[in-house]
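Same chain as my last thread, 395 residues:
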Amino acid sequence: MNKSCILYYAIGLLTIFHLSIAKAEGTQNELLGVWRGTLGQQEIVACWDHYGGNYYKLRKPLRIALNNTKNSDVWLENEWEKSEETISWQLNKPIDKHLVGSQIQSSTGTTLPIMLNRIHSSVPEDDKEECNFSGAVYEAFNTPRLKATQIHYGDSTNFMNTKYRVINALNGDIVSIELIGTKDSFTKANSVLHKEFMNDVLGYLTCDEFEPPRQGDYQSKIRLRFINNEWLSWSGHLEGYCGGAHPFFGSSTTTINLHTGDEINLWDWFNLVKKEENDQENQDDDVDSIAQVCEFLSNRCLPRPLSELVINTPASYEDKDCKDVDFQGMVDDGYSIGLNERGIAFIPELVEPARGMRTCYANYTIPFTKLAPFLSKKGAEAINQILLHSSDITK
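reply #2:
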């Protein structure tokens, strides 16, 4: 018998012995908080809140629920599953931030030792945070598996005279980019991108369907749209299903100042007007109002001439199968804005579409050179710098 087997066997005997001599049972209040240790030879992280327990194996994203039985020291894994096989945890009362117990499989009688150490406590009287939602307990429970997630790096490629690479995690369901270079501005940008990337990794890891927990569907991808010495702009697409009545989906655009790393609102580059229910010139003629292009969920809109220019511009599609979609007719309270190689793109925010067309989104791009009459002072300075220093812009 090798050393690891001897150690494993000894731990098992010690755990069983510890359980057999302990008379006091570990109550749920005594378990509240986050624990880390081993189940057999596998590293795990466990969490208890006022609703029950949860745990995961460090290298696997799926959460497993622990539900209390009539005996307060016995917890069943995923008790909602309709199976003759049951897996239970029998836990001893915690002693000095240590918790021991055993996992028992009903069909085989296999017993594995559980040895955990508390890494975050939860005060029953004051702390109502939950393992599976936001808060300090949630963060402590999920940080270990977030840090353990492997990130894969693609080959270097070039876009607008800038080197970058695609990065992904979790079988390619979470995709982002990383700029390649030693510039301070790249460091700032990569910090912003990495934070968003890890937020999406956490979204995937915590995306499960309840009763019993099953791995949900969560996909997030971003694509680089524009970069120069001043600005970086990208688009994102998120979709999935993590329980509830409906799946979710959404697209977004982000532009940051490369010198500060701060996100900017491109709507501030324009002289905007308030959204009007009816065009003043046509009120007496009882003519329908002229459609306006407005910031999403805001009363900030482009002036009528620029709105008409956007609306009458041919759409650009990510997917040619989307060419028959009436994007302008499906606008849900406004547009988002992003930079791209040709100009400023206006992207309609759509009402929740059918599943089959969730990857359908379009942009209406106005060339930089046509924007001058409509720009604010801030916007004019920015666009002039873009045109002055970029040979890649289509004029």
